[in-house]
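Throughout this chapter, every protein is written as a compact record of paired, labelled lines. An example of such a record is reproduced below:
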Amino acid sequence: MRAAASIAVRTPIINLCRDMALSYVDYAIIIAFFVITTSIGLFASRRAGKSFAEYFLAGGQMSWWMLGISMVATTFAADTPNLVTGIVRRDGVSGNWVWWAFLLTGLLTVFVYARLWKRSGVSTDLEFYELRYSGKTAGFLRGFRAIYLGVIFNCLVMANVILAGIKLGGVLVGATPIQVVLITGIVTVVYTLLGGLRGVILTDCFQFVVAMFGAIAAAYVVCNLPEVGGFSNLLQHEEVRSKTALLPDFSDMDALIPLIIIPLAVQWWSGWYPGSEPGGGGYVAQRMLGARSEKDATLATLLFQGAHYALRPWPWIIVALASIVVFPTLESIQVAFPDIDPQIVQDDLAYPAMLTFLPSGLLGIVIASLIAAFMSTLSTHLNWGASYIAHDFYRRFVNLDATEQRLVATGRWATVGLMIVAGAVALTLESAMESFGIILQVGAGTGLIYILRWFWWRINAFTEITGMAVSLAIAMFFKFGYSHTGLPELNSWQQLLTGVVITTTSWMLVTFLSPPTDRETLKRFVLKIRPGGVGWKSIREELAESGTPVETGDSITAGLKAMMASTFLVYSALFSTGYLLYQSWVCLAISLSVCVVSAIALWKTWPSLNIGGPANASDQS
């Protein structure tokens, strides 16, 4: 009865949704966006095809601010506003801690791993395996991960992004899923093929500006809809008040455990998620390897983390809260958009539904901003995945004598293939949260491996193979087999914790039972990377006894201090923005005070990090 009444009251709004159509101005803005994006790809193509390093690493000469913005643009995916909207509608603003907790992972990369990655001199993060491990198992791990991450995992992530594009296209322009996949896919593939990573980074910088403006403008407009009545009225709405808290109710353990305790105590270090890999990796590592110095790699990842968590979320959160007023139920969304497949009408569809109220001109800008978010993410994942296929599979196992031009050509063919596979997978998904949960579960228990492998000599290739295999098996069991066992039902955090315990126990046992990495390989690794900590003490002693000078490793203590100071800095900035919007002045004063103290602590810690400006030997290569 309540749902029916809500729909009846909103009949004028529903009719407005049905009558919404793009004007010539909107189409002109969207076309101009496509033209500018493709032109940037053409501009970058003059240098892209010269070599593998130029095509996939932009020659290793990119500045920190461009790399940082590029990483932010990549994670500013079309599916992210949908994901955040679904979380807020279901669990409130505090539900976002399920991904806010990954800040700890990101800042660990900034202050501990960014310099190590740049120092390694590898062309992809998978090449690291044969730098760190030895024997055929290292080669197998590199080749398998090239397909496992570059194709399977990568296509799942891209499919999630494409699913968001399908929902946006269906709601905003009435496009079919096939039309969305074909049109946006072709344009994205074209400029990615032309410009390589340099083209991706340049277009990312342009697309980020468009995407941020569109998100802020959309939040402003929907707050001033007649039914919402401004931000102050929105916050006083009966259904919204219970959703605005930045922290869950600490007396409600059913909310506290999955939203705060598990993400902050377990998930950030134990899990694996693209863009938030413990110890760095994936496209984040690709950006760091493309930096012109260790300092640029560090500053780029710091800019990324600050903007990703403190700058971007609030426009999406505001739209999500407003959607609770305008579309309180899934039935109200379905009635407003009867042509949308009922299978994909989930809470995450509320974000594009709210955008249908934007006026002509602004609607075109916002659609262009969402296309920008969509394309920046896809282009990065296409280029990154293709680098794995070309360098870590084709060159390593198929054609050892491949020329630079052959590698670039292979990467371009791989780009096309990845887009086709991802588009096909997208047509089988229903919600952003669905694949987010799958990815979290698949990576559960492997994160600590990627942290320790830099600082403990005993981690070996068998460790990683075990962690990857066990976590995948557990994820598939929970997805397809657990419901048939008759055992008590487990919620998502219980499944995640189970996966972490079993996977971590398994790879720890295998680490001590399997043969260690060859000592000569470990010595070369220490000499090249200069890792700090006691985990390499025995290797350093052997090198010293042989008369080989060993440079002092980076201070892990200083890195961890900077990490903690930055954690408080970013979280307090995130909270300050929220309390300013909520007009909660006491809380705002407290959060701003924490922000200032944290900034001072980071400033004082920075010199002890010894982050130099000039490029080192590996940077010059």
User: Anything to note?
Assistant: Residues 1-19, 613-621 have pLDDT under 50 and may be disordered. The radius of gyration is 24 Å. The chain has 30 helices and no strands.
